[in-house]
């Protein structure tokens, strides 16, 4: 076993993450600091093994089920890649091709697709109050199915984005931050700005800004949430951010002034989202089946957005950050001025200068997902990593 | 090798199923009693190996093709699970994405997708006289392709539901019955009711009731087919049921009285279907391209159904069964009163009380499909099972 | 190692194909004669191993991404089969389910789906000047991603049909020709006719006739391109054909007379395509977003086609070929008179007589694709083949 892998295993030995075994991953704030550190460490270890052409297949067969209730490219492929990396065959439940319309219940479907499923990944971020509830229902159903002896194994649920959090995204973002600054120990006192930015497109989910403030306040950084008046996120997640900051020795503050937020920042995450209050109205309209009302509301949101077109991550703003070179984060795809839209979240030169770190940031996602699965499946992850290294099966033969 | 596996192999040694090698699986009544017993036994053996974390991958590579001409959740995932369990990669032929519209023939398509296919599963249950014919055409085409040296292996066809039979469903149902009553030897004299039940939804296929009476009359049970006047199934399948019952020492009777049927029953299978005569008319309209006519007919069917709203599996009816606790079977999804519809096939308390056995029933399907493939591929299934046990490759590593 | 495999390896030892390592496959005319010979040889070697139940899985995990911007059956399944044969999991990027509509750029998407991708196959043949450009953009993006350390491996691009060439099809066609005539050495002086034929269907891509004349002029054959006045292909590809013919000691000629072309032919490839000039107009209309104009143009094309209904591969014409039995090639599906259309590309008796060779021709495609991937991935393909034979892992176990 090489020295680097030994280090990862040594790191895991210092952490307590016993409760992750056979558990699900809904929100980062459900997890302890040690548990999150375990995810980062296993992600790095799996990447290290793959880069050294050592297979990390812990499954000889088995399915990884995905359910996407919203379009997706990178999360879809990240999930498929993570499953494949561990030996699971990705299988998408396309609700349009299913009999759900014929009266299946969520609980029933969850069990029916899970007879050979080791993991279920769900993206359901469209309606406030719905996404997490749906994921929880699925997880409870298969948990019960497992306990009742219907399922031979308990599929782990991985939240691929709900209405509240987007943990695989934010953990990948965070891993980029950690590697960029050379370790968690260097983050204390860094200023990170989660800022709203103008977008001409549809009302984007709140789960990214909420996930970012819920996660990134845990590392002693000074986290600033900036948005125009009225573009609040869910108050519960602000509360979590506040508590995290207090506990970690950092801070969590809010401002309606983008320029003030960017001043001296080390990390910026400028991104559009829809106001929470409007998202709640939208959910109510959905509950009433008022799809015309939803259309009207979305048009109204876009009109409303237009009042804040100046909330753009410009070259000028970037110059005001620490040394003029804050790390620019985005979950992608971004609304780039002059590329995908006339006015948008970011100026093209800012975006283009950041391409390498942006793509690197995205590249962690498959490993983060794989690490979440690995920690839920392996009772002794350190031993499992050792055994994989000892088995030494090549990922690519010859 | 453990004792349980030894028992399965011992059981297989007593059966004659040589003809299943390299053959297809269309209808249960094509198969001898020994052949069906072999499917049940191999299904149990594969499940036993998997539960003991022993890989049952007999394929290192190869595709399992599925063609779904009707929506599906459980059959789709059961087929994918079965393929995965044996090492095949599921690959769906989505006819909308294919060039079939560009003038391919069935025979051509069948060969074109089969160069590396070891199995083809087809669901085509929409039109009387069409589904089986299509499956037979595909099977004949690849058989010829194999004989002519175009295909290196002969893909086995597995009927995932046609207009006549639904063998993977009914075999899974039957395996639940066998396990529930502790063995085939305990079924003699049991009363099983295949009953029509009211549904407010579309005209459901006949293949389940037909498959049930065609299969379950082979075990010495007293099988009763109950339906309102006019809701007959295909006469050929009734004929098969009659012959089976005579041969097995059981009985096959019909009634238009649901209450009478349930009286003292050990097993009940209440489920909606469309009247055969109307399904034939529907096929003719389809042949004439009269889609408006089909719409009209379907509305008419639903209106007609409404006359029989009292055909519901109620708590009251269930109390009249043997000891008031008949085994409740359903292929799912069911039309549950107050859950998926106002009036439907079953009352919610009856359905909910049966959830565990219902899900268990469904859980056999992947193994039944895998067993059908296994028996078509392995020349000596007993030896193959022994070798899998000896290879002792873990399904889940560490 | 058996004698036949030894021969394949011996053949490879005589060829120079070093540059294929880590490279893409866009057009056959990018490749040297040795490189094409290597593809044919590796394809045969992989087929030989599979036929002898020896696994050719060189990947323990990894994805094979496909992007189909046009419908496809055989290419879709050929690609999936090739990936599966080598151990990669096929994963389709369905652009409708992706966030491309949300403003992703091609470069971004290419990287986002490629974190664990070893190969990307693309079909994009709808618009002149677009398909190849798109493929090149994707290949450049992942090449850069690999160089910048974002991707751990460089995905190889395989052209599954562009606006210019259809190399996996034409190489499969060519392999059928080689095997049919017992080796490349027997092709000198053979007359091959790539002929336009009437089709009542949509404006078919030019990539097949272009690919055929660009490839098949390299083997010393007398290649004739026959089409009605105005149905020209891209002039660049004719230029390539001309140069190839001169170099190989064969010839490349053109005619507007189908009967003259067929006279004494050894191989005929009668197939419809749209006139290049009209395809260019179509691209311009597309650029202008004039979809009504495109519809109008397509109707005009079909009207125009009707003037050449007599361009059909009839029994009578076939009798005028060498000994009346020229090898009939087609990429499938064909427009068969009296089967898929009233008047079309070929008479049913001609097509039916050729079924076996036609299907055989198609059966090479998965192996051609697999060989392209193999040569791009294995630094020393001969050693890799030897090691696969020595590993002797069964494709099918027991």
From TrEMBL, chains A, B, C:
NCBIfam families reported for this sequence: PRK07200.1, ygeW
Domain Aspartate/ornithine carbamoyltransferase carbamoyl-P binding: 25-174
UniProt xrefs under InterPro entries: Asp/Orn_carbamoyltranf_P-bd, Asp/Orn_carbamoylTrfase, Asp/Orn_carbamoylTrfase_sf, Asp_carbamoyltransf_Asp/Orn-bd, Carbamoyltransferase_YgeW
GO biological process, one term: L-arginine biosynthetic process via ornithine
Aspartate/ornithine carbamoyltransferase Asp/Orn-binding domain mapped to chain residues: 213-373
Full protein name: Knotted carbamoyltransferase YgeW
Molecular function via GO: amino acid binding; ornithine carbamoyltransferase activity
Family: Belongs to the aspartate/ornithine carbamoyltransferase superfamily.
């Amino acid at each position: 076993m090489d020295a680097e892998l030994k280090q990862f295993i040594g790191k895991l030995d210092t952490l307590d993450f016993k409760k992750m075994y056979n558990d699900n991953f809904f929100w980062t704030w459900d997890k302890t600091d040690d548990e999150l550190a375990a995810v980062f460490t296993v992600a790095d270890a799996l990447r290290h093994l793959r880069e050294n052409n050592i297979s990390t297949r812990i499954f000889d067969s088995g399915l990884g089920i995905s359910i996407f209730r919203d379009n997706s490219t990178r999360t879809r492929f990240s999930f498929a890649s993570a499953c494949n990396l561990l030996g699971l065959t990705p299988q998408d439940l396309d609700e349009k091709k299913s009999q759900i319309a014929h009266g299946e219940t969520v609980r029933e479907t969850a069990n029916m697709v899970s007879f050979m499923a080791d993991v279920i990944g769900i993206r359901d971020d469209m309606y406030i109050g719905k996404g997490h509830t749906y994921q929880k229902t699925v997880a409870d159903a298969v948990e019960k199915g497992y306990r009742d002896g219907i399922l031979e194994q308990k599929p782990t649920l991985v939240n691929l984005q709900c209405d509240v959090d987007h943990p695989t995204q934010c953990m990948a973002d965070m891993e980029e931050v950690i590697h960029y600054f050379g370790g968690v120990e260097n983050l204390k006192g860094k200023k990170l700005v989660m800022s709203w930015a103008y977008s001409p497109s549809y009302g984007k989910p709140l789960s990214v800004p909420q996930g970012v403030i819920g996660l990134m306040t845990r590392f002693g950084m000074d986290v600033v949430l900036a948005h125009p008046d009225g573009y609040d996120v869910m108050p519960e997640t602000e509360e979590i951010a506040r508590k995290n900051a207090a506990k970690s020795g950092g801070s969590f503050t809010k401002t309606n002034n983008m320029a003030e937020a960017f001043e001296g920042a080390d990390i910026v995450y400028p991104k559009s989202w829809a106001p929470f209050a409007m998202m709640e109205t939208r959910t109510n309209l959905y509950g009433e089946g008022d799809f015309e009302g939803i259309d009207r509301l979305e048009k109204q949101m876009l009109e409303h957005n237009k009042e804040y077109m100046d909330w753009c991550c410009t070259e000028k703003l970037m110059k005001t950050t620490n040394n003029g070179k804050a790390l620019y984060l985005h979950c992608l795809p971004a609304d780039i001025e002059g590329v995908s839209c006339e006015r948008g979240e970011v100026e093209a030169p800012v975006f283009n200068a950041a391409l390498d770190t942006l793509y690197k940031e995205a590249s962690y996602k498959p490993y983060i997902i794989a690490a979440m699965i690995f920690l839920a499946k392996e009772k002794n992850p350190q031993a499992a990593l050792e055994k994989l290294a000892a088995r030494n099966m090549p990922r690519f033969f010859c």
